[in-house]
Design a protein that fits this description.
The chain is mainly beta and about 300 residues long. The protein has strands spanning about 5-10, 20-25, 30-35, 40-45, 50-55, 60-65, 70-75, 80-85, 95, 105-110, 115-120, 120-130, 135-140, 155-165, 170-175, 180, 190, 200-205, 210-215, 220-225, 235, 250-255, 260, 270, 280, 290-295, 305. The chain starts with 5 loop residues before the first strand and ends with a strand.
């Protein structure tokens, strides 16, 4: 991989407050963004132009595109609502969960269409019961308390990821480690308990081949785990100097060959996944930016990485 992977492609201006969610559409031609200004903006990645702008009743904490459709995505909101946005016509449909609490995490299975929702202290799995109407059909048990719990013992799902055509779901919890649940029996198949010194989890991302999980903690940076393995394969340092715990977004790049993590200072770092070699640091000044890959092996194709931070 080349030393410098990315350069600025476009700077996107449209939000008036902190951006908390960014998600590319399945084909990468659109980017959805939302945050504390309660504006959901759909951008065209090639031009940076705004294609659609929708006002939600509450800030959006989580977002996921439905890979089975070109124009359908779900938004999880601070007010406890999970919204289905179809054809960018506005939030006309709400997922029926029966729970009112902030929605922290979302994922959808491309085969079954099941929707996983981390809402308050619960994890729901919903399915489509009629056109554009989703409803919860199962709620997972709460994770067991750990033997060495932190003073903050809140149960809060931070990330959810489907495995094996919805037969199991990986849930990364703020204070209770990582649990893989069997969705049929609702039993825990395996769990990972990060060391106490960096126990609290900000976000997690699953690799494209579903073999690795990258987890950001609110202390030193990120840890890379092979699924089901107790000890991390690699650690990536992104220490904080503010003394404030803040969840940092993480993702895999280049079909799992690299990992990326944000920071409290606005910089974004990229590392090679298995070696841990630092590849690049991206700096930006509080704006939403698209960067394009300079790797010549991609020929004319653009591989986009998104950046965001508070203004």
């Amino acid at each position: 991989m080349q030393e410098n992977l990315y350069s600025v492609h476009k700077t996107l201006v449209g939000h008036t407050d902190s951006i908390s969610c960014l998600q590319f559409s399945p084909k990468g031609h659109l980017l959805a963004s939302s945050g504390d200004d309660s504006q959901l903006i759909i951008w065209e990645t090639s031009t940076g132009n705004i294609r659609h702008q929708i006002t939600t009743a509450s800030p959006v904490f989580a977002m996921v595109w439905d890979p089975r459709y070109k124009t359908r995505l779900f938004c999880g909101c601070e007010n406890g609502k999970t919204l289905l946005i179809d054809h960018f016509q506005g939030p006309d449909h709400e997922v029926l969960t029966g729970t009112v609490a902030p929605v922290y995490a979302l994922d959808i299975d491309a085969v079954t269409g099941y929707l996983a929702i981390g809402i308050g202290s619960e994890v729901h799995v919903a399915q489509e019961i009629s056109g554009n109407t989703f409803a919860t059909f199962t709620i997972l048990p709460k994770p067991a308390d750990l033997s060495d719990m932190l003073p903050d013992s809140r149960v809060r799902p931070r990330s959810v990821h489907f495995l094996k055509n919805s037969t199991s779901l990986i849930v990364s919890y703020l204070n209770h480690g990582i649990v893989c649940w069997d969705l049929k029996t609702r039993d825990a198949l395996w769990n990972i308990v990060p060391p106490l010194s960096h126990r609290q989890i900000g976000y997690a991302a699953l690799s494209h081949n579903a073999r690795y999980l990258i987890v950001s903690n609110m202390n030193i940076g990120m840890n890379l785990y092979a699924l089901g393995e107790k000890e991390p394969l690699q650690s990536f340092l992104q220490p904080t100097n503010t003394g404030i715990n803040f969840p940092l977004s993480v993702s895999f790049l280049h079909r799992g060959q690299a990992v990326v993590c944000g920071s409290q200072t606005g910089s974004v770092k990229i590392w090679e996944t298995l070696s841990g070699e630092h590849l690049q640091t991206l700096e930006h000044q509080g704006l939403l930016a698209l960067l394009h890959q300079l790797d010549s092996t991609k020929h004319s194709d653009l591989s986009f990485q998104r950046l965001s931070c508070s203004k």
